[in-house]
Amino acid sequence: MKIFDCFLFCGEIDILRARLELYKNIVYKFVIVEGSVDFRGNPKKAILDNDFLSKHSNIRYFRLNSEDFKVDNAWQREFTSRNCFKKGLSDALDNDLIIISDVDEIISPTKLVKEAKGIRVYEMSYHRFTPNYQCITANWKHACSFPAKYLKNYSPQEMRLVYRGIRLGEIKVTDSFKLIRQAGAHLSYFPISKEISIYQTIKDKIPKHPEDHVLTKHRSFKVTPKYFYCLTFLGIDILGARLLWGISCHPFIHFSKDERLILDKHLKNNKMRALISCKSSYNILSFATSIEKITWRLVTILVAIYGSSLRILIKLFYN
């Protein structure tokens, strides 16, 4: 059985290097798609050049140009990019394993189910900006793996949506899946360069997302640096989502020791500060799991009240 690791790449070079090293002994081919335009259609420079690619013979790289996108729509550009994975899977057999994710969704190699029997969705700790800043009230569940035979009937994008069960047109993946708990980490909004601040990273990245990627009144991120750092310290979601954030003293403890060494080597970001501090990613993952079925709605209401109240106070002093 061969393993194909398929993901979108948008400039997160340190995360990419960590991923390549983590998976080098288990993945047959990395199928990477990068666009010459962002999801809004704005031109952007390619990060992966021939010099980088020549050092990694196990990468199948596809770069999409503006004319590859038939519809002028941000979501459709993302879906088209993800469906391009099939170009790199021509030699995949029915029982080969396909991983569909984004580059910043890292499945622990020891947690990856290395068998072509059904669909797996991987629960991940949810981090922003730096490894130690973690969402306390929700985990991430989007990366998946499955036998290649599923791509005879469904597109990569449709397989990506298997956990949420979203219908695209008339097609929806109806097969059941198994959720693999505490299986990785989602590393969102990490600076792509040590010369760029976290605040500037967010300012640069938000305009590249679909306008409705978060359905809140704060999604445009029109705040000052002081306002931003007050939000993050207090654990208020910067885009207005009903999520609470805090510090994890051991953010990768749910990875194996060898995997942690690789992640720490490539992700030497400055640490965030926050009012809420937790012992480890295990504690946060377990807490988020414990509230997701029974008390999650109550928790999100309380988080929304907390965030809205403090935003008013912060705005008086810093915006």
Largest sheet: 8 strands, mixed
Strand content: 15-25%
Q: What is the CATH superfamily label of the largest domain? A: Spore Coat Polysaccharide Biosynthesis Protein SpsA, Chain A
Any idea of the CATH topology of the largest domain? Answer: Spore Coat Polysaccharide Biosynthesis Protein SpsA, Chain A
The termini sit apart by 55 Å
Helix and strand element order: EHEHEHEEEEEHEHHEHEHH
* Count of helical stretches: 9
Strand order of the largest sheet: 3-2-1-4-8-6-9-5
Look at the structure and give the mean pLDDT: 90
Q: Roughly what percent helix?
A: 25-40%
Category by helix and strand content? alpha/beta
Any idea of the CATH class of the largest domain? Alpha Beta
Low-confidence stretches: none
Question: For the CA atoms, what is the radius of gyration?
Answer: 19 Å
Number of DSSP E strands:
11
Described by the principal axes of the CA atoms, the overall outline is globular
What is the total number of structural domains? 2
Q: How would you name the oligomeric state of the polypeptide chains in this document?
A: single chain
Under the CATH scheme, the architecture of the largest domain is Alpha-Beta Complex
Describe this structure in words.
The chain has 319 residues and is α/β, with parallel strands linked by helices. It folds into two domains: 3-188, Spore Coat Polysaccharide Biosynthesis Protein SpsA, Chain A, CATH 3.90.550.10; 198-256 and 267-318, no CATH class. 29% of the residues lie in helices and 21% in strands. The protein is built from nine helices and eleven strands. The strands form two sheets. Strands 3-2-1-4-8-6-9-5 form an eight-stranded mixed sheet. A three-stranded mixed sheet has the order 7-10-11. Helix 6 (225-234) packs antiparallel against helix 9. The longest helix has 23 residues, at 296-318. The radius of gyration is 19 Å and the shape is globular. Pfam families: Glyco_transf_17.
